[in-house]
From TrEMBL:
Any one Gene Ontology molecular-function term assigned to this protein's record: carbohydrate binding
Entry annotated with the keyword Lipoprotein: no
One Pfam short name: Lectin_legB
Biological classification of the source: Eukaryota, Viridiplantae, Streptophyta, Embryophyta, Tracheophyta
Name of the protein described by the UniProt record: Legume lectin domain-containing protein
Residues annotated as signal peptide: 1-23
Keywords of this entry: Lectin, Signal
Ranges in a coiled coil: none
SUPFAM superfamilies according to UniProt: Concanavalin A-like lectins/glucanases
Family: Belongs to the leguminous lectin family.
Keyword Metal-binding among UniProt keywords: no
Domain Legume lectin: 40-200
InterPro entries the record matches: ConA-like_dom_sf, Legume_lectin_dom, Leguminous_Lectin
Length: 229
């Protein structure tokens, strides 16, 4: 609860965005790994390390290096290039309403720094408006870098997120789940990963062959053993 997330997105991160513009279908595809710092906006403790995107410090050495505590940390990384995901005509005609589709896949690690320690709360994949790239203050711990005690649930947050949560709060199903969040850390839909054989924050070493697909209606499809390494 509130401890630093030892989180490093490693290897390749594939971001595929498909947007509808006028009558033509345009596709954008990018693969990151190693990451190109020029393509991202970083906030708070987020940084790049050894070609990977690191949202918070993950060792006592880094803590001394950057004079930053490991506890109560959060970071955010946003693509600099915005994407138009929805388009409609003035006056709103539902028949002309067009919504883009996209998919993103990535590898990440969130685990304890050592034995008898608690891992960070998790992380979230976020979609928000271009001017909302900054990190809310005190958004560490259960807020997953999305909101804070004052802003949680506010429609002005203008965000949709998929959370990967490994610490149970009173509103969570367990300490190993994914959730669909809209403007709040209280998920609209959740699904435990334990029955699917996936563990977000394993105690020891684990493979990175886990796959989670969040489908229509909050359905979850999985493959593999773990989403951490």
């Amino acid at each position: 609860m509130g401890l630093a997330v030892k989180l490093r997105m490693i290897a390749a991160v594939l971001l595929c965005f498909t947007a509808v513009v006028v009558q033509n279908l345009k596709t954008f595809t990018a693969t990151h790994g190693p990451f190109n710092p020029g393509l991202f906006m970083l906030d708070n403790s987020a940084t790049f390390s050894n070609g990977a995107l690191q949202l918070t410090p993950n060792s006592a050495y880094e803590r001394r290096l950057v004079a930053m505590p490991l506890e109560n940390q959060s970071g955010r990384a946003m693509l600099r290039q915005p994407f138009k995901l929805r388009e409609w005509e003035q006056g709103y005609n539902k028949k002309l309403d067009r919504v883009a589709s996209f998919n993103s896949s990535f590898l990440f690690s969130v685990c304890p720094l050592g034995r008898n320690t608690t891992p960070g709360e998790g992380l979230a994949f976020i979609i928000t408006q271009p001017f909302k790239y900054w990190l809310p203050s005190k958004s560490f711990g259960q807020y997953l870098g999305l909101t804070n005690i004052n802003t949680d649930g506010d429609p002005a947050n203008s965000l949709v997120a998929i959370e990967f949560d490994n610490v149970k709060q009173e509103f969570d199903p367990d300490a190993n789940h994914v959730g669909l969040n809209i403007n709040s850390i209280i998920s609209n839909v959740t699904s435990s990963l334990t029955p699917l054989g996936i563990e977000l924050a394993p105690d020891g070493e684990a493979s990175t062959d886990g796959v989670v697909v969040f489908g229509v209606g909050g359905s979850v499809v999985s493959r593999g053993n773990s989403l951490a390494a």
